[in-house]
Design brief:
The chain is of the alpha/beta class. The chain is about 45% helix and about 15% strand. The protein has 12 helices and 8 strands. An 8-stranded parallel barrel has the order 1-2-3-4-5-6-7-8, surrounded by 5 helices. The model has no long low-confidence stretch (mean pLDDT about 90).
């Protein structure tokens, strides 16, 4: 494994990790169409300077928010299966998300046993609400990782909005770190101050405890329409009121959100480097609209250039 690999960068707490995230095709997609989507995806990613790919694991989150979901929940292909069966031409590491509550212990154990640590990393995601029935808890899944495959790089999700509400997300991060998590990936960032507060609290808590902070990868996602904005808010992403108003009134919300994502990336880069906090970026592409896919790809190219500058 080279020193410049994603696994090495994360293990050594290097800054500058660049990821791109997608959702696997819907479960009812025809096999020939899945193959076509995979080929197009690999071709698009080949032109970007990435350290790795993220494959999301989608779960129904209606338990967390009783409001009507702006976009219907449609089950997708299992990310590990999509990777194994259709992304053989992708030659860089892949971060596979696991919404652990969906899986029995035996399923998680089997996946941990079979995953190749030189090509695959994991991120375990807990239940979307405290009252949701689960087949495996996050704590138990992390214990399985420790028992079955501790050498498989494992990450966790960070939610700035939860820190804004309760002020303890940095303590959750420390607990997950103790349980074997070597990196963190944020929920979509639109509120810069929330993110900086979380980074500061986590960094100083690590310093006070005499431990090395693990890399935090900030997720950026474009907003191309009022309905996408509504969906972000339904998911719990805090979009500042001024920005939400601007995006709703904009003739080109895609261009405006891209401008804001770049501005946030520059600010977070400068803040983390000043602090000494290891960081990176993940550009999320979950839309099926061609204009949004192309704009997201361009954003990833620009963020990558920012990181390498």
């Amino acid at each position: 494994m080279s020193r410049n690999s994603l696994q090495s960068k994360l293990a050594e707490a290097q800054s500058g990790v660049m990821l791109f995230s997608i959702t696997p095709p819907r479960r009812n997609t025809a096999p020939e169409r899945v193959k076509e989507i995979a080929e197009i995806t690999v071709g698009r990613l080949a032109g970007l300077d990435l350290d790795g790919l993220i494959l999301y694991d989608i779960d129904d989150e209606s338990d967390r928010n009783s409001d009507q979901r702006p976009f219907p929940y449609l089950p997708t292909l299992d990310p590990a299966s999509f990777l194994a069966d259709h992304l053989g031409d992708w030659d860089k590491p892949t971060v596979v998300y696991r919404c652990v509550g969906k899986y029995a212990e035996t399923e998680l154990r089997d996946w941990l046993s079979s995953a190749d640590p030189t090509r695959t990393l994991g991120v375990f995601v807990g239940a979307s609400s405290g009252g949701k029935p689960v087949r495996t808890s996050l704590k138990r899944a992390q214990q399985l990782h420790h028992d079955v495959r501790p050498e498989l790089p494992l990450g966790a999700v960070v939610i700035g909005e939860r820190h804004a509400r309760h002020g303890d997300e940095h303590l959750r991060m420390l607990t997950k770190q103790e349980r074997g998590c070597g990196f963190f990936i944020s929920q979509v960032v639109y509120d810069l101050n929330e993110s900086k507060n979380l980074v500061s609290d986590y960094f100083h808590a690590c310093r006070d405890a005499g431990i090395t902070p693990r890399p935090l990868i900030f997720t950026l996602s474009l907003c191309g329409s009022p309905k996408t904005l509504e969906f972000l808010e339904w998911l719990g992403v805090q979009v500042p009121a001024w920005l939400a108003t601007e995006l709703r009134a904009s003739d080109d919300p895609l261009a405006d959100s891209r401008r804001e994502c770049l501005a946030m990336a520059r600010d977070l880069k400068a803040f983390c480097e000043r602090l000494g906090m290891p960081y990176g970026f993940n550009v999320e592409s979950v839309s099926i609209r061609k204009a949004e896919i192309e704009a997201t790809t361009e954003l990833a190219r620009e963020i990558g250039a920012l990181l390498r500058s």
